[in-house]
Amino acid sequence: MSEPAYKRPRIQRSPSPVYKLDDEDDSYEPYVPVAQRRQAKLAKLTSWGANTDKDKAKRLQEEQDERDDEEREEEKRKEKARKERTLLMEAQEVHNRKAAEDAKKTAAEKADEADAEILAAIAARRKLASDLELAQGVQYTEPMKSSWRPPKFVRDRTPEENRRIWEKHHIIVEGEDVPPPIENFTDMKVPEPLVKFLKSKRITKPTPIQLQGIPTAFSGRDMIGIAFTGSGKTLAFCLPLIMLALEEEVRLPFIRGEGPVGVVLCPSRELATQTYENVLIWTAALAKDGRYPQLNTLLCIGGISMGEQSHVLNKGLHIVVATPGRLIDMLEKKRFTFDNCKYLCMDEADRMIDLGFEEDVRNIMSFFKRQRQTLLFSATMPRKIQDFAQQSLVKPVLVNVGRAGAANLDVLQVVEYVKQEAKMVYLLECLQKTPPPVIIFSENKNEVDDIQEYLLLKGVEAVAIHGSKSQEERQYAIKSFKSGAKDVMVASGVASKGLDFNDIQHVIIFSMPKEIEDYVHQIGRTGRSGKTGIATTFVNMNTPEQTLLDLKYLLLEAGQKVPPFLESIEDPRAAQGGMLKGCPVCGGLGHGISNCPKLEDTQRRQMASHRISDDQGGY
Ligand SMILES: Nc1ncnc2c1ncn2[C@@H]1O[C@H](COP(=O)(O)OP(=O)(O)OP(=O)(O)O)[C@@H](O)[C@H]1O
């Protein structure tokens, strides 16, 4: 047999010169790091090319990645825990330091700090300007220009002489370049027919808020005017608007579609109606003389048909007196515009800003096309509202007659302890104290109705007014009470603010309002324009102690008799020592900001986004 052509060569294994030693075992594998080995294995598996092997390799790689991830995560967790421990230790250290510092502080200092925190939160509210102005960052820096100048003898007065006049009338002023006070209407350059008319109404000399407020407003300045109830604020803000309208009309008579020059905003329909009637009387007195043109005024409130006033809208319009809801409605419908409106006054301004009208006010501001002169007036203007308002005004002048929120000293305040079940009967007895007219206030609409019913049964001529009554009923009640046809008016508390009834002899507060500001407004329906009056208030164990404490301080401040049951109420803050300050939110003297009933109410209202629409009744 022949040999095959190809013979497989025998493999000669030659020893490796490097690794193989004679006495070494063949199974020896040199040390290779684990990671490197894994890589090699992986490469081998991958190079085999079989799908299953590839999957296996992939799985192995994934497992490895997972393990690596876990290791990284674990490391991160440890690092985080380390950091947290450090932060915790630092926080503990800060806490301990603060506790040590706090221990050194008095209770009063701590309360002050808490107050400051709450106030800072309140101050963070957006300022009162239109959204457009806020968005565009429009900020006016100079007050409005005015052509009015005080007479030379007033301009020539020294600062010391002005200071003496302020002191004489207990006026506190704040602000840059405060215009000088003027002590009579003629020197203010008020037109003669109007001065004569005012005289015929026994308005012969300006009241303190008028003698400083009117020159301030005539000078074009933004202002906050604070003066007690019945001190003539209405004239102080209406007269400058009438003068401004007069000046514009004389320069270039208004035709249909033009105007208004200015607007007065009020929180209730009744107050708007009363202010409107005053403006009508004053402008009519001017026009009657024949030397001055007729000025047209529009009343813009919910509950009345604007058709009735179309005759005003058909002419040039000078002045608008309004409640917010109806005003916005009219502006949105373009029944008139604020293109040339230069004057915005808010009466009972604290209530306007605080009581859910804030957004409405901002909305109204967005209809102004240019800078306006802004004036805020009220008898109660807590520090919080003042601070908030200041940032919305241009170089404002603050004119303050007496403490904001103080009671009118012309009112004799009597506080009586009357058990709940005895109130109605005692009311009849109380009515004998003075002749009519008398106003009775209750916080509760049903109670208002009950009191009226009871009085009618007892033969007392009484009318009632509250937010659930129709506009006609409300108008009838006010009209018949003002005219003297009815002796007694029973009203819900909120109806009180700003209403000026003739010579009210006696105010009876059947249920004490929780907020002391409301009490101040309610008793302020009597003792107006220099006359005196009595206010009798029923309190009992249902009256919160804090309210009683506010009342006690108010009586003390006004130099009134404090009954023994009020005298015995102790102020928990008195033990802390130091001067007791008024609450910056409501002005009450008997509590601090942290337990202010008004703040609670405001917050509750804001949370519920409650908006008091004048179309729902105005109050
Ligand atoms: N200079 C004055 N001299 C005498 N009486 C005046 C004077 N100015 C206004 N009055 C009268 O005083 C009364 C109260 O005025 P007004 O209603 O403006 O008070 P007010 O300060 O707005 O009070 P409230 O805070 O309660 O609204 C009115 O009847 C008004 O005619």
From TrEMBL:
GO terms for cellular component: cytoplasm. The keyword Lipoprotein does not apply. Its EC number is 3.6.4.13. Coiled coil: none annotated. Residues 410-570 form the Helicase C-terminal domain. Residues 214-399 form the Helicase ATP-binding domain. It comes from the Eukaryota. Residues 183-211 form the DEAD-box RNA helicase Q domain. GO terms for molecular function: ATP binding; hydrolase activity; RNA binding; RNA helicase activity; zinc ion binding. Residues 52-62, 74-87 have a biased composition (Basic and acidic residues). InterPro entries: DEAD/DEAH_box_helicase_dom, Helicase_ATP-bd, Helicase_C-like, P-loop_NTPase, RNA_helicase_DEAD_Q_motif. Keywords: ATP-binding, Helicase, Hydrolase, Metal-binding, Nucleotide-binding, RNA-binding, Zinc, Zinc-finger. Residues 63-73 have a biased composition (Acidic residues). Transmembrane segments: none annotated. It catalyses: ATP + H2O = ADP + phosphate + H(+). It holds the Pfam family Helicase_C. A motif (Q motif) lies at residues 183-211. The keyword RNA-binding applies. Residues 1-32, 44-87 are annotated as: Disordered. This is RNA helicase.
